[in-house]
């Protein structure tokens, strides 16, 4: 009686979309506050769980920041007192909101419901 070892290779790992909720393409000017100081950027998409930033100065993964987004229609600003960089590539960064005040969440939801179509849907819901 002989025993053979069977080796099963798992398929290539797939990229997992960790974004939560509906994302919307936007173009809002913003300011970032980090331990290194203040910088300007643009928010290029947003959801209730995070956003994508077009940067003028690089950030690093896992870096914490505060974000203030200037709304185009002059209705004010969105304040994100605590967020964390999830990924960076060149001068683009994905940021997750760690703390999101309720009024800011409501403003994001109103923005998501406006006429521009969302860029992606999530299969992931938690936080």
Low confidence ranges: 1-19, 115-127
Supply the helix-strand structural class: mainly beta
What does the main sheet amount to?
6 strands, antiparallel, barrel
Architecture (CATH level 2) name of the domain at 23-109: Beta Barrel
Number of helices: 1
Radius of gyration: 19 Å
At the fourth level of CATH, the homologous superfamily of the domain at 23-109 is predicted glycosyltransferase like domains
Strand order of the largest sheet: 1-2-3-6-5-4
Global geometry: globular
Helix content: under 10%
The H-and-E topology, N to C, reads as EEEEEEHE
**What gap, in angstroms, lies between the N and C termini?**
54 Å
What kind of oligomer do you see? single chain
Overall mean pLDDT: 78
- Relative strand content: over 45%
Q: What is shown here, in short?
A:
With 127 residues, the protein is mainly beta.
Question: Which secondary structure elements does this structure contain, and how are they paired or packed?
Answer:
Layout: E1 23-34, E2 37-46, E3 50-55, E4 64-70, E5 77-89, E6 92-99, H1 102-113, E7 118-120
Antiparallel strand pairs: 1-2, 1-4, 1-7, 2-3, 3-6, 4-5, 5-6
Q: Keywords for this structure?
A:
single chain, mainly beta, 1 helix, 7 strands, disordered N terminus
């Amino acid at each position: 009686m002989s025993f053979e070892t069977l080796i099963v290779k798992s398929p290539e790992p797939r990229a997992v979309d960790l974004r939560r909720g509906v994302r919307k393409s936007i173009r809002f000017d913003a300011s970032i506050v980090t331990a290194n100081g203040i910088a300007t950027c643009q928010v290029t998409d947003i959801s209730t769980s995070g956003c994508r930033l077009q940067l003028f100065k690089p950030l690093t993964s896992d870096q914490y920041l505060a974000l203030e987004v200037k709304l185009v229609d002059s209705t004010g600003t969105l304040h994100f007192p605590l967020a964390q960089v999830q990924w960076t590539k060149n001068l683009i960064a994905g940021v997750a909101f760690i703390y999101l005040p309720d009024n800011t969440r409501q403003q994001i939801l109103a923005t998501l419901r406006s006429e521009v179509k969302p860029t992606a849907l999530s299969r992931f819901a938690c936080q």
